[in-house]
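Re-run requested by the PI after the first attempt was lost when the workstation crashed. Everything re-entered from the original request form. Ligand of interest: AR6.
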Amino acid sequence: MEHKLQNGKLLRMLVGDITKVPTDGIVNAANSALAGGGGVDGAIHRAGGPSIMQELDQIRANAGGCPTGSAVVTGAGHLPAQLVFHAVGPVYRDGKHQEHELLALCYRKCLELAEQHAVKTISFPSISTGAYRYPIRDAAQIAVCEALRHLEQPDAKVQEVVFVLFSESDYEVYSKVV
Ligand code: AR6
C-alpha cells in the first residue's frame, strides 16, 4: 500500500525481504553489542557481506556498542542501498520498562541519521517484534506514528519511508494503522 501525504511525501508498506528492496538507507534490527544475530540482522549480514561487520567491529572498538533506543551507521556492502542504520530496539518485558519510548527513539534516531546523511528513501523492518517480542499492534502504532510525524515536517529531506514486513499478518497490522 502507498499513502501519499499532502506534501507529496510517501509512506509505503509491502511484504518482503528487506535485503531485496532498493532504498538509500536500510534499517537493521540489531542488538546493543552490534554482534549480529538471527532474524533480519542475520539476513542483512548474509546479503550485505563481511564489510558491514568489519565497520561494526570498528564502531564497537571505539564506542563499545550501541545503547537501546539508538542506532549506528555503516555502509551497505552488497545490499541495494548506500547505508545501513543498525537500530537497537527494546526487549519487551511488560510494557513498564520504557519499551514504548525506547522503540519510538529507535525510529526517530534512524530518521535523524537519514537526514544527516541526505538519505531520501529509507526502509524499516518491524523493529523489536521478532526475537525481542514487542506486541506487533503496539509496535506498528509507534512505527507508523514516528514515520508520519517525520514525513510531515516541511524541512525533512527524507521523501519516502518504506515498511518491509516479513509476513502477510504483520502487513495487515501495519496497514490498518495508517
Ligand atoms: N526482511 C524483513 N523483515 C524480516 C526479515 C527480512 N529479511 N527477516 C526477519 N524479519 P528480529 P528484533 C522480521 O527478530 O525483534 C537479532 O538476533 C521478523 O519477522 O529480526 O528487533 C538481533 O541481532 C520480525 O517481524 O528483530 C537482535 O539480537 C522483524 O523482522 C534481535 O534479533 C524483527 O525481528 C533483535 O530482535
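Saved to the shared folder this time. The first strand starts at residue 2 and ends at 4.
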